[in-house]
Amino acid sequence: MKNAMINYIKNEKFDDIYTPEYAITPLLEYIPRNITVWECCDFGGSKITKLLKEHGCEVISTDKEENFFEYKPKENFDMIITNPPYSLKDEFLKKCYEWNKPFCLLLPITALEGKTRGEMYRKNGIEVLVLDGRVQFMENMIKDYTKKKSGNWFNTSWFCHNVLPEKLIFKELKKQSKQSWLKKYSKTSFNLQKWLDKNVKLCYTIITIKKGEKT
Ligand SMILES: C[S@@+](CC[C@H](N)C(=O)[O-])C[C@H]1O[C@@H](n2cnc3c(N)ncnc32)[C@H](O)[C@@H]1O
């Protein structure tokens, strides 16, 4: 069962899943404002970048074109925060330790075990912000509530270094409901509950047309 789960996570389809805001919010209280953070896996719409900016941080955003293993940001940075591709999690951990800066990586909880990682953790230390539920990752930003979400049956948590005040912190994951998402983005005043009960896809289309965006 455990091996099945590990092989499942190694599947490269989990390299291109995107982090919803509710998975990032529990981490924010441990991130100082006014620091510069490197989001090194920002495909152009990372919610990590968005929330950190709202939090008051400067953010350097790069993606695979820059290649985390070779790129050196021109600006100084204080911390690395990202959700890396899971097929490269050991390599990302190794490189983060090499940078010798505080970091936070959103990883499957099974990344706690393993010989290579165990050696890295023993040598350098690790803190974990354990989330009490599974994050429903997005296939892309627009598809979030309109298409089938990428299902996952593993828990992910924030693996940190020199960030958390304790080695283990347990946090509640407060998922966004469809309704709160629609309330936030909808400028219309029709009965949301009625539409939610019927067809969210249609509801989303109406909202985007009203906002003058392409569907
Ligand atoms: C799991 S997605 C997460 C994206 C975003 N950080 C988020 O949390 O929503 C992983 C991202 O890593 C990027 N990536 C893959 N290999 C990379 C590399 N060698 N250097 C930097 N980014 C890479 C992919 O383009 C993809 O956008």
Describe this structure in words.
Residues 141-147 and 202-215 have low confidence and may be disordered. The chain contains eight helices and seven strands; from the N terminus they run ααβαββαβαβββααα. It has helices at 2-10, 21-28, 47-55, 89-99, 115-124, 178-185, 192-198, 200-210; strands at 36-39, 58-61, 79-82, 103-108, 127-131, 156-161, 168-171. The protein folds into two domains: 2-176, Vaccinia Virus protein VP39 (Rossmann fold, 3-Layer(aba) Sandwich), CATH 3.40.50; 177-215. β1 (36-39), α3 (47-55) and β2 (58-61) form a beta-alpha-beta unit. It is of the alpha/beta class. The longest helix has 11 residues, at 89-99. The termini are far apart.
Briefly say what this structure is.
The protein has 2 domains: 2-176, Vaccinia Virus protein VP39 (Rossmann fold); 177-215.
What keywords describe this structure?
single chain; 215 residues; Rossmann fold; 2 domains; 8 helices; 34% helix; 15% strand; globular; binds S-adenosylmethionine
